[in-house]
Known about the structure:
This protein has helices at about 25-30, 40-55, 60-70, 75, 80-85, 90-95. The chain has a domain at about 40-95: Arc Repressor Mutant, subunit A. By secondary structure, the chain is mostly helical. It contains six helices and no strands. The chain is globular, with a radius of gyration of 13 Å. The longest helix has 17 residues, at about 40-55.
Amino acid sequence: MELKIKVATTEQGFLLDKTEWTEEIASQLAAVEELELTVAHWEILKFIQNFYQEYEYLPNARVFSKAIKSELGAEKGSSRYLLKLFPEGPLKYACKIAGLPKPPSCL
C-alpha cells in the first residue's frame, strides 16, 4: 500500500522530516502496517512523541515500557498490552507511525 499524501520516508517507511507528520499521515502509515488506529494506539503515539520532545532521544524497548508504566499505568506499560497494539514491535512501530526516527535499538 502506498501513502496517499506524498512525504519523504526512509526505505523502512520512517518519515525523513518529522515536521511533516499529521494524524492523517499517521493513519496512512498505520494502514501500510495493516493497523487501524484506536484511542489506545493514539495514547501510545502521543506518549512517544512527548517523550521524544522532552528528552530528545528515543528509548530502548525496556525504557519505553518502564516510562509508559510510570506515566500511564502498569497495564498499559506491559509488553502484552503493547504487543496487542503493535504486534510487529511496539517501540519501532509506535515511533514509525508517530513520525519519529527509527530507534537506534531497533533492527
